[in-house]
Design goal:
single chain; Histidine_acid_Pase_euk; hydrolase; cell membrane; Multiple inositol polyphosphate phosphatase 1
């Protein structure tokens, strides 16, 4: 059905193009060479502001270091102690993907509306634009997404290579959701990861992954969230209010003026989709004629539209959004509890390196996985809630989804075992401490309540104990009467 719709659209477009080209051929000839060059430039000019909310490619906002070393294995900041990494847990959003089929068809519909009233010589590159997104790739990973995941796997392996090098693959867990894009992401990550930690002859091509929607798609299983937030239009009031606000209406009017068309042709929702397609195409094809319709200030305003959407859908807008992620929080910390129990149960003469325990677990999920997890942990929480009427007050907001929830966004805890600097290998182990350090998108991030970028594990464990030890998902997600849901 979708292919038939796209095919019909192509036929209509070709017919319209042929007719208008014939009628206007003489007028086209009279266009000056300067005008042709100018129009071409604005159609393909690169946008200087590459922030497209959750549709932002990872390396646009988190440029990797050119040189990556084993920099995370030692916790060097803790004075008087020698600390080495014993475990890491990471939650990773899938890589850059193609737009969903609904958006693919919708941008073709918008384009058809425009070319029906647009003269082909006014904006030739936009007029002759062809939708190059495949109709059969419903949100599947793009090549860019595979590349950024593979490089992320390489970097994490390199940064903790002393911990991971030559370890048995049974000491690692790779957990995915039921969606194909998380499987594709995990496979690409795995390829980069094992090529660093294993010798060439030991590399195994196939990833041994677990599927767990309970951990990674809890948002689909939590009835209270589904009915009180996701499917409740009133829960997204701030988003819709800003989408119809003077800020976005002005952008819509400017787009109409640039195209020279009636100001009632496009809606503000159409303008937001133009913004998203500008981002998708720039990421995949390096440029997009749709970007010529928006300036930098427009892009910042439309970015705030996306931030409002995710603030109330995946962030701090409603308590249930944060609470529903407790299975993920619990899994992370209970695994670390098990790692510590395994280490502490070994004989005093047994080397830690020889002990088999989970060295690393890697979860591959969605923006709807990572956003509620940030919320549960208290990360990126602005003192002033994001609202439709306070855009000007949020120029320096923490909840900036382009940076915290781009494609391949990641959160990683590294657990360290620490001994006194005076400890000798011949001494009996009686004073061991464990510390935790948090990284968000590969950068150190302060755990709320910790004075430094590292914190005693027990302190952090106690802080999140209600999420870890009292995660009654069934009770938390029990649906209440509609009037009480928000």
């Amino acid at each position: 059905m979708a292919n038939d719709i796209l095919a019909s659209y192509v036929v209509v477009k070709m017919a319209a193009t042929t007719t208008k080209s014939f009628v206007n051929c003489c007028r086209l000839i009279r266009i000056s060479s300067f005008s042709v060059i100018f129009l071409s430039t604005i159609s393909y000019g690169a946008t200087p502001y590459k922030y497209f909310s959750t549709k932002t490619p990872y390396e646009w906002v988190h440029k990797p270091s050119e040189t990556v070393t084993d920099e995370l294995y030692y916790l060097k900041e803790l004075q008087g102690k020698s600390c080495t990494a014993v475990h890491t847990s990471a939650v990773i959003r899938h890589g850059a993907r193609f737009p969903g089929l609904e958006d693919v068809l919708e941008i073709s519909r918008i384009h058809e509306k425009i070319i029906n009233v647009l003269e082909p010589y006014d904006h030739p590159t936009l007029y002759n634009w062809v939708n190059r997104f495949p109709s059969n790739n419903n949100k599947e990973l793009s090549q860019l997404g595979e590349d950024e995941q593979e490089r992320l796997g390489q970097r994490i392996a390199q940064k903790l290579s002393t911990l991971f090098k030559d370890e048995d693959l049974s000491d690692f867990r790779f957990i995915i959701s039921s969606q194909q894009r998380t499987n594709q992401s995990a496979s690409a990550f795995y390829e980069g990861f094992i090529n660093v930690i294993l010798s060439e002859e030991d590399v195994e091509d196939e990833i041994d992954s677990e599927v767990s929607d309970d951990l990674l798609r809890f948002f689909n299983l939590c009835a209270k969230y589904v009915y009180s937030v996701e499917k409740n239009k009133t829960a997204h009031k701030e988003y819709y209010d800003f989408l119809s606000s003077e800020h976005v209406v002005k952008i819509k009017n400017k787009v109409h003026q640039k195209l020279g068309i009636n100001d009632d042709l496009l809606t503000t929702a159409d303008v937001r989709l133009i913004y998203l397609v500008c981002g998708y195409e720039t990421a995949v094809f390096k440029s997009s004629p749709w970007c010529s319709l928006l300036d930098e200030n427009d892009l910042k305003i439309l970015e705030y539209v996306g931030d409002l959407k995710h603030y109330y859908k995946n962030g701090y807008g409603f308590d249930i959004t944060c609470q529903q992620s407790c299975p993920m929080v619990s899994e992370i910390f209970l695994t670390m509890d098990e790692v510590l129990a395994d280490i502490e149960s070994m004989d005093s003469e047994e080397a830690t390196e020889g002990l088999s325990f989970t060295k690393g677990q890697f979860f591959f999920g969605h923006a709807e996985t990572l956003g509620p997890l940030y919320c549960a942990l208290g990360l990126f929480n602005d003192s002033m809630p994001l609202k439709a009427n306070n855009y000007e007050q949020h120029g320096d907001r923490s909840f900036l989804t382009s940076k915290i929830l781009p494609f391949s966004a990641n959160l990683m805890f590294v657990l360290y075992e620490c001994f006194s600097d005076e400890f000798q290998e011949t001494d009996e182990v009686d004073e061991v401490e464990y510390y935790l350090k948090l990284f968000v998108n590969e950068k150190p991030h302060q755990i709320p309540g910790c004075p430094e970028l590292f914190c005693p594990y027990r302190t952090v464990r106690e802080k999140y104990s209600s999420l870890v030890d009292h995660c009654d998902f069934k009770q938390i997600c029990k649906r209440k009467p509609t009037k009480d849901e928000l």
